[in-house]
Amino acid sequence: MAKNRFNNADHYIDLVKHLAPAPTVAIELLGLFDDPDRDIDRIVELIGLDPSLTLEVLKRCNKASSGPNIDTRDMFEIVTRLGFYEVYCVVAAVVGARAMSIGKSQTCLDTVNLWRHSVVTAVAAAALAKHLKETEAVAFTAGLLHDIGKLVLVSVEHSRYADIISQTGTFGSTPAEAEYSTFGVSHAHVGARLLSRWGLPDDITAATLHHHDTPELAEPYGRLAAMVNLANCLAQQIVDPKAELTDLLKKNSSAMTILHLKPDQVPILIAQTQNDMKRVQGLLDMVN
């Protein structure tokens, strides 16, 4: 069954006409978070391998930070002043924004709204990771890219995907169920397969695959899957607080259990996410 789903995912990915290239630099940078001996020179060297990425990072770093204005073309100074994690978030956002171009021409999918949801999910996942003493950069990346499969499906099946959105909305588990019924695969499977083909780490692909499932299915990466699962829920609450938070948390009870979180901690995490969003406001206008 799983093999068939990934075969279907490959089918849709292969049909995309203008697929963004694998984010090699971002993947290399992400690996440096596990290297205690990393230095700024190596970070600058990696970013410099992609000239267009370098220009975008130079352009965006000032907008992405609430700190003092930076008017420099010196990447070494930017990394020194902002910190590796802040710069990495901009690099990851450039990757995500490039991916958004896959479905940007399809009017049935509001890519601006999807991008905002992705950024808020990334920030919420990072806030959870910080609270749980996990790697924030990994959580941020997984949160940012968790819905990338929607862009593939809408670019290939735009008319049928428009019907799904009109019937179920853009977010939540219901569209994923409708996708599988219609296409034999969900955006979670397509997204996980694309990230795997790009060379993203297994924990991020597993979290993408299971962000609407019970996180235990992602073991041995259940904690990251739980963070993305819950961050996805919190992002929906922050962006469009129509549903009762208690109802949303019931749907994510497995994630709460895995992460050893209590309901009274969630409003604090929401407040932390909202505060952290101020720091990355400049990322939101990368897709418009």
3D structure, described in words:
With 288 residues, the chain is mostly helical. The protein has helices at residues 2-15, 24-32, 40-48, 51-64, 75-82, 84-100, 111-132, 136-145, 148-156, 158-168, 173-183, 187-198, 202-209, 222-239, 245-251, 253-258, 266-279. The chain is globular, with a radius of gyration of 18 Å.
Short recap of the structure:
The chain is mostly helical. It has helices at residues 2-15, 24-32, 40-48, 51-64, 75-82, 84-100, 111-132, 136-145, 148-156, 158-168, 173-183, 187-198, 202-209, 222-239, 245-251, 253-258, 266-279.
Shape from CA axes? globular
Q: DSSP helix count?
A: 17
- Beginning-to-end CA distance, first to last residue: 38 Å
What's the gyration radius in Å?
18 Å
Class of secondary structure makeup: mainly alpha
The tally of beta strands, per DSSP, is 0
* Poorly predicted residue ranges: none
Order of helices and strands: HHHHHHHHHHHHHHHHH
What share of the residues lie within helices? Answer: 55-70%
Indicate the mean pLDDT.
87
| Proportion of beta-strand residues | under 5%
